[in-house]
């Protein structure tokens, strides 16, 4: 893998030199320097895109926030590490702004420089950029046509991948989320970002969901030991809940594969406002009566999450990765997560925290007594065969 190009933006010459020397100690040789944002843009115009920018916020001339906006508009920066001493709420807001602009956020380095922290943040870029078996391609081509999608469904090209969940305290497996992948004959292994909107546009979302459910349940019944990996979480969009065939298909699949309904969690994704119609509520109630868990996915980021908790029969919620990614050290995110855990406990609702990508995040959630987690630190998405093998010898991915 080609070594990342790093750009350091720091107005204080001594601090800038310290960061550059630290990068050299860690083996980074493609390093550019700038005193402030406009000078950094000039460097990028000469040398090309920066893979990683280590950016001070308070600089003379063009400050860090202006630089991030300008560089994102010109597609000159892939990822950012903040290096500043601003309050934590401003740091969180700046990193969120960068993320919204399409820049990968690696984290906050703070001041003074901590070499171990710098190395850890740099590894996040290397880890997230690496090609692992569970890492499918992201959108880079024109979306697939309706005919391609229908042929792919006919041929069984849409398959489930599995990302394990785990007990935050014991690190034992606690089931897995079923994720869609498409083994495209020409484009290779595709992630949902490459095809999900096209699948919706051609009205094949239900068919794809049922195909994934059938395959996941079949493999679970055939090869996964009960009590360890038999719990499956299936993503269902809000628009699918009003379809009466959803219940018919799920009940039929559970019966066909002799799986208890308690093995199935339906994660309702918040991609749009949930119209609480009688048919929608009926589906949620019937799922609960059947014994399934009904979960709010990405809790806290979508449409009227609190209202849904009050009015709809959810018995699980997933804390969105955008909150977990700021642990530890971000006081606001810690307070939001702690309040969510307290609320869930009082309501008798289970909680899963997603986005656990470091041991520090897991430890922070352990201190908050969060029961279940999910994230790359524990296990990346994997194929059915890989998941089956992993279950018999579950290893934490990053220990």
UniProtKB/TrEMBL annotation:
<dbReference type="InterPro" id="IPR001633">
    <property type="entry name" value="EAL_dom"/>
</dbReference>
<dbReference type="Pfam" id="PF00072">
    <property type="entry name" value="Response_reg"/>
</dbReference>
<dbReference type="GO" id="GO:0071111">
    <property type="term" value="F:cyclic-guanylate-specific phosphodiesterase activity"/>
</dbReference>
<keyword id="KW-0597">Phosphoprotein</keyword>
<dbReference type="InterPro" id="IPR035919">
    <property type="entry name" value="EAL_sf"/>
</dbReference>
<feature type="domain" description="EAL">
    <location>
        <begin position="142"/>
        <end position="395"/>
    </location>
</feature>
<feature type="compositionally biased region" description="Polar residues">
    <location>
        <begin position="128"/>
        <end position="138"/>
    </location>
</feature>
<protein>
    <submittedName>
        <fullName>Cyclic diguanylate phosphodiesterase (EAL) domain protein</fullName>
    </submittedName>
</protein>
<feature type="region of interest" description="Disordered">
    <location>
        <begin position="126"/>
        <end position="148"/>
    </location>
</feature>
<dbReference type="InterPro" id="IPR050706">
    <property type="entry name" value="Cyclic-di-GMP_PDE-like"/>
</dbReference>
<dbReference type="Pfam" id="PF00563">
    <property type="entry name" value="EAL"/>
</dbReference>
<feature type="modified residue" description="4-aspartylphosphate">
    <location>
        <position position="56"/>
    </location>
</feature>
<dbReference type="InterPro" id="IPR011006">
    <property type="entry name" value="CheY-like_superfamily"/>
</dbReference>
<dbReference type="GO" id="GO:0000160">
    <property type="term" value="P:phosphorelay signal transduction system"/>
</dbReference>
<feature type="domain" description="Response regulatory">
    <location>
        <begin position="5"/>
        <end position="126"/>
    </location>
</feature>
<dbReference type="InterPro" id="IPR001789">
    <property type="entry name" value="Sig_transdc_resp-reg_receiver"/>
</dbReference>
